[in-house]
Amino acid sequence: MHYSNFLHTSIIPIPPSDALPTLRNYIHTKWQATWGSFSNNKIYKIFPKLQHPPPLHHSYSRKEQVILNRLLIGHTHLTHSYLLNKEQPPNCNYCKSLLTVEHILTSCSAYRNIRENHYSNSQLPHILTNISKQHIFNYLSEKNFLKQTLTFSMARYGLSVLKVPLNPNQPTTSNDPR
Fold first, then answer.
1. 3-state DSSP call for residue 98?
2. CB atoms < 10 A from the CB of 114, how many?
3. Alpha carbons within 13 A on the beta-carbon side of 160
4. Where are the domains positioned within the chain?
């Protein structure tokens, strides 16, 4: 072989099927770096690594899926209605701490015994990703948080709300004569 053959190079096109994994990895790395810069984000605390959230099982009703998603993003009527009502953020009636989903699910001392009957871990990411969702629903139901999480009192704004029971076999209770 002659040395001059090495100096004469040609560009060989790379097939997209070979380039795509490298491009995906590069984009994912950049996206993770950006996501990592938002470490105070509520969802970041649950999912610090970019990933597809675990799919909600098809056996959950639409209402249960709404509850789980509200818990994941940390926004429920109970904890965030003050924004619509132009009030101060609510405090826990027992601890006087800021009332948040994390406080309700992990640290309120008034509910410790009840919480421990349903799950023992006190880390929000573990609770929302690894604990049986039925245990979470049972805990929230026992303390009547489910109703407070779902209820959105729009009567104040002249609107009506269709109340759908969490359990489809359970009849709705409503004072509405319709």
1. strand
2. 13
3. 6
4. 62-157
On whether the pTM is more than 0.85, the answer is no
Out of 4-8, 119-123, 158-162, the most confident range is: 119-123
- CB-based contacts of 50, cutoff 8 Å, min separation 6: 28, 31, 32, 35
Q: List Cα–Cα distances, 61 to 26, 57, 112, 113, in angstroms.
A: 38, 9, 28, 28
Q: Tell me the torsion sign for CA atoms 37, 43, 44, 47.
A: negative
pLDDT of residue 29: 87
Q: What is the pLDDT of residues 31-64, one digit of tens each?
A: 888 888 887 777 777 777 777 666 666 677 888 8
One-letter amino acid for residue 53 of the chain: P
Nearest to 152 by CA among 76, 88, 99, 98: 76
